[in-house]
Amino acid sequence: MAHIKSSSQSTEVRTDAADSGSTTLTPVAAATATRRVGGGLLDPKMLWQSLPDAFLKFDPRVQIKNPVMFVVEVGAVLTLYTAITKPSVFNWTIVVFLWLTVVFANLAEAVAEGRGKAQAETLRRTKRETVARRLVGWQPGQADPREEPVPGTQLTLGDHVVVEAGEIIPGDGDVVEGVTSVDESAITGESAPVIRESGGDRSAVTGGTRVLSDRIVVQITSKPGETFIDRMIALVEGAKRQKTPNEIALNILLASLTIIFMLAVITLQPMAFYSGAPQSLVILVALLVALIPTTIGALLSAIGIAGMDRLVQRNVLAMSGRPWRPRAT
Questions:
Q1: H or E element at residue 160
Q2: Domain that holds residue 312
Q3: pLDDT in tens, 91-103
């Protein structure tokens, strides 16, 4: 069991206890226990589904977010024009390799995003299937409040819901009435139940956890789209993730190296003309692509998304890479 930097409302890194006697799974594991998102880059079904997204990434407005691959794509376009106007086996060979590089980079990222979206869809389905017992006009101490069943996705800030033994808490909130034991292993990895009661510092509960005893009234404290499960969905989709200083530094380094090598290649042609041996555009582009960190630039985003996806499949939720940085030094 690992539990790093946790609080009552959020946990930066969470994983299930590796307890052979425990059968409780995280919300991701519970949703995918019968059907995990299988396959990887070589899975034919995933490749076929990711092809449209891969071709959409040829848009320069998308590619410019990755300076390295943007340079490769521009170079591929220039060499394609040269190969059409001055056809030769060498020119067309370079064109094919450059376009294969761009396609592979786009496809790797599209496959990683596709796997993340598939995981997120299982979470959305689990969230939609959760039914909350919302109390209408509830007041503290009210004996027989009126209840109405609503989907958990329709709960808003300030709503009151009643949860009894064996039921799932439909959203993040605070206990305002009653005391209960809650199974929070799906969130914190702790196999032992914890006590949650109204008042004090033990009143916070998280959506997706299970009430084990008694009856409680929970006041929802999270806005729609900002619950713990919503943050998990955004995380596995790769939409929201805090970059570590190492990642930021690596992005700056890749962009800097690309600019430096581009300037170096540009200055070669005047010297080649001076020496009486001018080089073709295809050769200069091939040299530039060989010099810049193409492999790292092509796979950097795909590695990040795929890494988050693999962590979630193993019941670990990493909001950023910070918890591992001290251990890597």
A1: strand 160-164
A2: 28-126+233-328
A3: 999 999 999 988 8
